[in-house]
Amino acid sequence: MPVRRVPLPSGTLCRMADEVGSAPQYDEFADEFLDHARDGFYNAHYDRPACLELLGSVSGRTVLDAACGPGLYAGELVDRGAKVVGLDNSPRMVELARDSVPAAEFRVHDLADPLDWLPDDSVDLVLFALALEYLDDRVSVLRELRRVLRPDGALVLSRMHPTGEWLRHGGNYFEPRVVEEVWSMGWRVRQWLAPLEQTCAELSAAGFLLERLREPRPRPESAELYPEAYARLTQEPAGFLAIRAIPDPRD
User: Fold this and answer.
1) Going edge to edge, which strands form the sheet with 177-183?
2) CA-based diameter of the chain, in Å?
3) For 166-196, what is each residue's pLDDT tens digit?
4) In a domain, 110, yes or no
């Protein structure tokens, strides 16, 4: 949620065909996204700190940054001593990531396709930030992330808070559906809405155990910079949630 989101004109924010597809939705506004997200409230003061905390110490560890965007998370991981391999289905996002984090390795890759360039048990940690809702076959993707993750590793993912999404969109909270909307900078996106129990079930089906779930609060220092957003997200489930999951040894 990099910017405030506004519905399409009346009648157009509705259930779409039950797929999002593999088109790189962020490609056409990748440069604007980087400018906004670098120091923006939702990214710099809210989601990135929560995900990095759940990852824990990364020094000397190999981290797969799945759906890496313009490399903002990867840059912090490299600064903390990680070896980072990133991927995104947006060619422009990958260009930006390579420019900003030359110490990491990035490639254009659609997560709908197997990670056939990564061996089994080859990464220590997987970061999957704010991209789950853009996938149609989430279990297959999570299984592939499980395959490349070492048995003692962990997956950290963040997603839109399902309660906040239901409060915004209405309808049946328990019915997964695709919606389309325009964010306040004119960025049009299509994404899945799904209840929390479905995300947990998908993780389980992919061979993960949920170790920790966080409903993060913004960094305290952001209160002066973004007082309204800070006050809202310290009281309401209006933003994101973050999950740390580990491989199920029984799988």
Assistant:
1) 5-6, 177-183, 188-193
2) 51
3) 998 999 999 999 999 887 778 889 999 999 9
4) yes
